[in-house]
């Protein structure tokens, strides 16, 4: 029986392990931390009984993929729950905009921008199953659905500030700016619309669901399915050298490209080593977990039913903040994402106190404390929020990086979403998972299709490894 070692137990490492084990490979996963999951961990970090997601909280692209269809994680305890409102964006005057699963309902609430919103997202929603199949894989491939991909690409290639001009109201423009800002990119750059268009359409087609009982249930379900197929997971095992791994047939590295170079040393060809070292990481995140009595009192009513709330004001204000963090400057009013998972999964709360998971976009490696800035920004759109806070727990960009080495400098999307890296990550190659070292493959979110708990980078990397094994 062929053997494999997987270094790292994030969703991609576990997906790679499970894919290999299902093909008859004897798999061992090595995890440096005392717990598995990478970005899919959950814990009671503020008050007993309040379950917070440590990093990734909502999973719009994880519910229907080649990986999820291949493995019935529901049989291993994974269940999804949806908020009524997928995401909302309040403005200073008490108005705002929101996204429901229905394109029609969302468009109708946008008033003068109803027709334009429906034209863009309605057309993409009808074809999104085909589009997702295309972009959840390496960009260098022959598309099976070129017409659907072309329409998606025509919108995605535009700077977000340009695409947002198709809408006339500040509410609709801010709504798109907020979802586009998930890319951690200046909104005036090429391809800065791509992630916003993808996540915005996914909100209609799949919703932005949470894992019932916390994001850790995703990794727990994968681990259970892996054990069922004979795979093993060892925690508390740090890998710094290839020689520590013995002599497996396959090695999968759920690590950053730079960490892969350190582990592989001279086994990796010099040209690939240079490419990995040139891999760019983006800005960081500053996280705060709040325990909030009775939830956040948003002035914009739909935000109270939203799983995710984007804060940053108008399109222009968000664009300014994103330019500043890209240039290494901390904005006075940073862009902020607020996760209200208990809206969809009430068991996360306890005795009327709700866990709220928040992160602000900050410069890479920023060591400052943004807790008060975040509180002020939430208070700006939810007067009275401060008085409802019962506990907090903060982590700086540097602390995030120390907790998870894949998040270099606090980069929680594992690689800057520059135009080059959106198309070619981690390097220009027909097989972006191959490291050049025989039998060794990179499977982290630094490889296509990038960040998320969908496991598709691990799935594709494992398929590449199996092709190598069968050659």
From TrEMBL:
Domain of life where this protein originates: Bacteria
Gene3D superfamilies according to UniProt: FAD/NAD(P)-binding domain
Short name of any one Pfam family annotated for the protein: NAD_binding_8
InterPro entries according to UniProt: FAD/NAD-bd_sf
Protein name: Phytoene dehydrogenase-like protein
Lineage: Bacteria, Bacillati, Actinomycetota, Actinomycetes, Streptosporangiales
């Amino acid at each position: 029986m062929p053997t494999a070692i997987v270094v790292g137990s994030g969703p991609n490492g576990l997906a790679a392990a499970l894919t290999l084990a299902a093909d008859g490979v004897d798999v061992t996963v090595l995890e440096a931390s005392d717990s598995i999951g990478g970005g899919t961990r959950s814990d009671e970090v503020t008050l007993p009984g309040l379950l917070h997601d440590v990093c990734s909280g909502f999973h719009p692209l994880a519910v229907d993929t080649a990986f999820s269809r291949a493995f019935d994680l529901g049989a291993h305890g994974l269940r999804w729950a949806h908020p009524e409102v997928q995401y909302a964006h309040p403005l200073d005057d008490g108005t705002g905009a929101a996204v429901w699963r229905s394109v029609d309902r969302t468009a109708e609430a946008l008033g003068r921008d109803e027709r334009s919103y429906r034209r863009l997202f309605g057309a993409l929603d009808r074809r999104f199953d085909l589009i997702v199949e295309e972009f959840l894989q390496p960009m260098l491939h022959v598309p099976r659905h070129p017409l659907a991909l072309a329409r998606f690409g025509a919108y995605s290639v535009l700077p977000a500030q340009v695409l947002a001009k198709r809408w006339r109201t500040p509410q609709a423009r801010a709504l798109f700016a907020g979802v586009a800002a998930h890319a951690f990119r200046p909104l005036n750059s090429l391809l800065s619309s791509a992630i916003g268009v993808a996540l915005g359409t996914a909100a209609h087609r799949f919703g932005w669901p949470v894992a019932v009982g916390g994001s850790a249930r995703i990794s727990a379900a994968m681990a259970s399915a892996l054990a069922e197929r004979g795979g093993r997971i060892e925690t508390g095992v740090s890998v710094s050298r290839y020689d520590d791994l013995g002599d497996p047939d396959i090695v999968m590295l759920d690590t950053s490209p730079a960490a892969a170079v350190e582990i592989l040393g001279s086994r990796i060809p010099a040209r690939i080593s240079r490419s990995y070292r040139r891999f760019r990481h983006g800005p960081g995140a500053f996280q705060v977990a709040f325990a909030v009595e009775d939830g956040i009192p948003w002035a914009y009513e739909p935000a109270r039913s939203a799983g995710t709330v984007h804060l940053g004001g108008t399109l222009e204000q968000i664009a300014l903040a994103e330019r500043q963090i890209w240039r290494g400057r901390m904005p006075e009013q940073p862009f902020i994402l607020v996760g209200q998972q208990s809206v969809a999964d009430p068991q996360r709360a306890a005795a009327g106190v709700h866990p709220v998971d928040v992160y602000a976009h900050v410069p890479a490696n920023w060591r400052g404390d943004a807790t008060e800035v975040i509180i002020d920004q939430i208070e700006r759109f939810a007067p009275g929020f401060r008085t409802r806070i019962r506990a907090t727990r903060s982590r700086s960009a540097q602390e995030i990086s120390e907790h998870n080495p894949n998040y270099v400098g606090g980069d929680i999307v594992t690689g800057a979403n520059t135009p080059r890296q959106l198309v070619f990550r981690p390097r220009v190659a027909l097989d972006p998972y191959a490291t050049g070292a025989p039998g060794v493959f990179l499977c982290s979110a630094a490889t296509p299709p990038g960040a998320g708990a969908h496991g598709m980078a691990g799935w594709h990397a494992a398929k590449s490894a199996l092709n190598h094994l069968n050659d």
